[in-house]
Specification:
single chain; about 750 residues; Chitobiase, domain 2; TIM Barrel; 5 domains; seven-stranded antiparallel β-sheet; six-stranded mixed β-sheet; about 35% helix; about 20% strand
Amino acid sequence: MFFPTEAKTNDYICRQTHNTLIMKRLMTAGAIMLLTMLTVNMTAQTTLVKKSKAKAAIVLADDGEKTRQAADLLQDFVKRISGAELPITTEGQAKGNVFIGGDAEEKVGEDGFSIDTEGGSLYIRSGGDKGAIYGVVTLLEKYLGVSYWAYETYDLTPSEDIILPEIHVSETPVFRYRQSQSYGLQDPIFKLWYRYESPGEEFIDHMWVHTFNRILPSDKYGKTHPEYYSFINGQRRPGHNSQWCLTNPAVFDAVVEKLDSIFKANPDLKMISVSQNDGNFTHCACQECKAVEEYEGAPSGNYIRFLNRLAERFPDKEFSTLAYLFTMKPPKHVKPHPNVNIMLCDIDCKREVPLTENASGKEFVRALEGWSAISDNIFLWDYGINFDGYLTPFPNFHIIQKNIQLFKENDVTMHFSQVNGSKGGDFSELRAYMLSKLMWDPYQDADSLMNTFLNGYYGEAGPYVRDYLKILEGALLSSGKDLWIYDSAITHKDGMLRPYLLETYNEIFDKAEEAVADDPEKLRRVRMSRLSLMFSELEIARTYNNMDVDEITKKLDLFEERTREYEIPALNERRNTPEEYCDLYRERFLPQAEKSKALGSKVTWILPPHSRYEALGETALTDGLFGGSTYVESWVGWEGKDAAFILDMGEAKEFTKIECDFLHQLGAWVLQPKGGRFSISEDGEEFRHFGEFNFTEDRDVRVKFTKGTAVQENPVNARYIKVEIDGTIECPYWHYGIGFPSWFFLDEVSVY
């Protein structure tokens, strides 16, 4: 129904005449009431575009940057829908236009908005910050039929006419700050549409986490003031990941001086993070710090006392600090000041069920409830993907809503879900969508949200993708296995990824591909989502000695082809690429022509591994299977000590080379050893030197594999081989675990 903005047109006169005749013919009480209702309904409509011609202008109610952004966004999509461009102006008549900006009523909070049609006009008002933008997004999505799915990926229905019904809507997000990760954030429209924020918008100078070393760099202060840093295992430990001695008055003075200069250089923002460096157990254990810790019942006591002093010194600023790993538990006595923000992290929790349902989650919930009892300024940092394998299936969609509701009900005001939404990561697009919707309002129908996305993004393949996700979820829960953020597909090869289920999943994806075979774009989306299944099959296949080499080679080639075609940048948080993985797989995991002469050798421990790995090591060191990029499968580990053991090959054999295979994974405190030695014997009693190897220090954060090798020019003959390895013993000053025992992991000793 169309109503002109100018009253005296021929069309309008004709309509009025027609209406008069109707009134004369229908002068009953019921007819009058009906006509009145129709007239009210019709006049409540607002016409933006008619026959691809603009019938309204966008009027800026204020001159704010975000108001202009909102207007530009509306103008852009109206043009994409209809071909008409609504002019943007600062002046316009009160009737028939779109008014953007101005203050919404009081009940609408930060980032909230109201949308109202009044007298043929449309009003989008803001509750503060980006409220006007999000009002426009809601209008486009709910009333103009635009759906934004992923990076530069959206659907709309073209129309020559855009006529709005009566609208009276107001919304306020449950969290004042909402952050997640997605490759879609490289698209500025995606970021606005998903209502995500970034640390740079809130935190001064991007100082939002792990800031101790940025504020007082150990390279600058470590040598001259070692007393500023943690006392660990009997000595001061300055380092990039060391913490501060928070009871030292000189540390407070130095921090105040540095912060004062930062605040003067950045007057526009008020929030800053003063928070521990990454790493666990590295807090100061000097006599003074330890006394506070004992009184408060947790290391966090020292941190909150320190932050409170900063909050008093700079009352116009807001200080965020981590409750993470060793500071997760709240203190018994001290309470954070109102301008101290607690950034609480649930990194150690398992993810197969909501946080309220397993042991690790319940421990975190107790911490959350404890912080909630003493603070109403909580930033919740959640985790939702496998960081050692972005492409590893991670079926946690069934817990997302319940966890977010838990956070809201415990006074959380800011929320970050770290899902490392790398392109090609396990259902990265769906995760971004679900998190965006539920961070805004966690009490929506989550199943309906998921169906909307799956059917919109995958089209006719959507129901098949849904089936895959639900079967995967059920298989995880029935397996009784944990879902961990540093997990491996191999962990689940007898559970949700057991052989017959892999067959079922592939059948489902085959049907999904067939359903959209005539739609190249949706076929691409299905195939990109299938990468996690392909990756799992490759990972599991390498754990068997009887793999079908031809079949696996074909799967590997196709995986490489697809990851290259879709430009998948990384497989894990250490940025290892698919190309590197495929090359390594051919070199490391496919059967090689030359077999180790030590296969099946008996292992006798002299300096055994950690008790957790001792039984595994008796077979894993000589089974011919090489471990992958995570230490949770195949690898045998030693913590804070050297290694020594003897291999018995069963009989004397001739060889020229011995090598050990080691894992390098700094994020898990897994370092290369310093070196090692090999010696040989015919009787197992008298050993003679064969060779040695040495490693130089490696600070590269990428996961890699290194070989300790010794070679003799002429063949030797021996039955027994003694292996001795010199560990690094403790993490060095530059590492996350400074001063604490380091690990090294070995998975195979080969003899050629």
